[in-house]
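Task card 7
Instruction: Convert sequence to structure tokens.
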Amino acid sequence: MKKLRIFLGCFGALIAIAWIYLDIIELQSVYWLAVELISFFVIVVGFLFIALNKKENNTLFDIFKICFSLLFLGYLVHLDVVKYKRNACQDKFGREFNERRRSLGIPEIPANWQVNYRSDRVVSWMGKNGINGHERKYIYVDSCIINSEWDRYHLKAIHSISRDMTITTTYAKGKGMDSIFYRYETGSDSRLITRKQADSIFDSEKIKKDY
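Output:
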């Protein structure tokens, strides 16, 4: 029984270390999710075996510790399952969605970009910060349906006045039409422009278009 306790303690510690590390690097893998579920099952069975084969009677405090530990571990696994499903859904609108973007004529996600930020409804992709050109994309997803995208292009400042170009794509629901808006920003001034005007600005700035 003592060896089993030591095994469960070491096994649980290793799983916890791996869980923290993989959570930091945000690895999304169905294999790791399977390992988590199997590990949770092993720990549950181990705890129950120890409790049922304990020579002395279990106190209420012992039972509380076991139940609390199992509920806490189950909650962590549940969070990872929810997170995996969310990220797997959001990833459908990452680089693999570029073909659809290409057909619509909206900015793609370059091959060297990485996910910079995630929440339940927003994913931010980012390239090199401060470059002239496409530097960031926000994708808004709700219930595994893409709602809109927002792209920022950084332009060279003129007389110390910052300049940016943004392209907003709103995806239609049902049989509606998708909408694309181009906005030119200089300092605190912001105005809508046409695609032709946007193309002209990119040409004058010698910025390669990715839409």
